Amino acid sequence: MERLSRRDLFLVGFTLFSMFFGAGNLIFPPGIAARAGTMTWFAMVGLAVSAVGLPVLGVVAVARTGGLVALGDRVHPLFSRVFTVLAYLAIGPCLAIPRTATTSFEMAVPPFAGEGAPLDLYRLAYVVVFFILALLMALRPEKLTDRLGKIMCPILIALILITFAGCLFNPLEGYGAPAPTYEGAVNAVANGFLEGYQTMDTIAALVFGIIISLNIRARGIQDERVVVRSTVRAGVIAGVLLLIIYSMLAHIGALSAGAFPEPTDGAQALTNLVAALFGPMGNLLLAAIFMIACFNVCVGLICSCGEYFSETFPLLSYRQWAVVFAVVSAFIANIGLTQILTLSVPVLNILYPVAIALILLSLLPKRLQGGRLVYPLTVLFTGLTSILLELERLTYSDVLSFIPLSDLGLGWIVPALVGWALGFFLSPLASRN
Questions:
Q1: Rounded to whole angstroms, what are the CA distances from 318 to 296, 309, 369?
Q2: Helix, strand, coil shares of the chain as percentages rounded to 5?
Q3: How many CB atoms are located within 10 Å of the residue 343 CB?
């Protein structure tokens, strides 16, 4: 039987890691740690579940079920079409792709621009060049393993290792005190879990399968069982790399909070610490890390979105869709990072629980997921509760505070379990009618 060589398997795993590891993955682990301080490793447990475990399970789920569309069809074909399009748009041109350009710009240009520099003009020029280069690489999606896995990913990991090594040799003041929202193990774990939404990787995992399988087939593997098995193994490799790098970044962020105790975000935590460790060269090191990481993810997302939309809406070819997404993303990127992050929170708070429910359902034993009402009712209860809880959050009300775990931002879990139970027990009755 055909088999992917160990070398090629690791290259594909590195490619998937490169597609996952971008703007949010660099910002949120040190940002969480900067706020969590001495509670960092409790917060990292939550982050590891939502930003490592669930993405790996997402890769497994789509590999086993044949893709996000097939997984969504278990709920209903209309839901599948709507949710899949929303997922691609969220991790594509509406949120994640523009964020790759804005985040890398903020870290690569303003620190060197000087006071009074026309940053809006610089951002426009940077974004245009960034997306032209990303588009040129994305036009050959089957070559990502050769370009991202072999070249860009090792360079990125090496730069992060250099930064981490600096922390080991100079630990500064140690970890800082936790912010009020991170006091106590339960709060730290819950907040780490919710912050993991912002990486968007669980949703990304559902759509990256198309590109990973394409790259596996480009290496001569045609047996579908081998493609599925290799995709799952590549997901595990990517997950291990993510966990290691997140742990390094969390340590950096926690040390930054100890040395610079004022409230800060992940980008500022990294900037503060790297400047303290490496001086003026620190800004160059950080700029290179952000530019490479964000560029890798941008290319992967353009490829994934282009493949899906060219298959689903063949009015345009893959290359034409890739151009559309690059142009739209460049336009949105000029809105600015703060506005993009603000918009992403409500969208992800609604989409993420549904994605988690789909992934976990697909991994249940057949006898626990086979009823015709299991998927529809679980997703209905999960999605409806997520929408209502997000509306409550935006209006600062507490009407739904009676729902268990809602105070931790996880109020959708019990309704999801209720939906699954109703679907499981009602399915036999529905089958008789």
A1: 19, 8, 35
A2: 80, 0, 20
A3: 15
Check the CA dihedral 316-318-322-323 and report its sign.
Answer: negative
Among residues 371, 345, 421, the alpha carbon closest in space to that of 24 is found at: 345
pLDDT at 127: 93
Q: How far apart are CA 423 and CA 255, in angstroms?
A: 48
The residues near 182 (Cβ < 8 Å, ≥ 6 apart) are 35, 36, 37, 39, 43, 188, 191
Q: Residue 377: pLDDT above 70?
A: yes
Distances from the Cα of 60 to the Cα of 149, 233, 236, 359, angstroms: 20, 9, 9, 9
Helix, strand, or coil (residue 201)? helix
| CA–CA dist 140, 259 (Å, integer) | 45
Encode pLDDT of 292-334 as tens digits.
Answer: 888 988 988 898 889 889 988 999 999 999 999 999 999 888 8
Closest CA to 188 of 41, 406, 401, 52: 41
The CA-CA-CA angle for residues 154, 352, 311, to 5°, reads 70
Which of 148-162, 296-310, 376-390 tops mean pLDDT?
A: 376-390
What is the number of alpha carbons within 13 Å of residue 136 lying toward its C-beta? 5
How many residues are there in the chain?
433
Contacts of 365 (CB under 8 A, 6+ apart): none
Q: Cα dihedral sign for 120, 289, 247, 258?
A: negative
Question: Mapping DSSP to helix (H, G, I), strand (E, B) and coil, where does residue 385 land?
Answer: helix
Structure tokens at 319: 């290359």
> Of 140, 160, 173, 130, which is closest to residue 38 (Cα–Cα)?
173
The full set of domains in the chain, from first to last, is 6-336 (1.10.4160.10), 364-433 (no CATH)
What are the DSSP calls for 276-294, one per residue?
Answer: HHHTHHHHHHHHHHHHHHH
pLDDT at 327: 93
Q: What is the pLDDT of residue 1?
A: 46
21 with 244: CB under 8 angstroms? no
As a whole number of angstroms, the distance between CA 347 and CA 433 comes to 38
Q: What is the mean pLDDT of residues 367-376?
A: 82
Which of 14-23, 54-63, 171-180 tops mean pLDDT?
Answer: 54-63
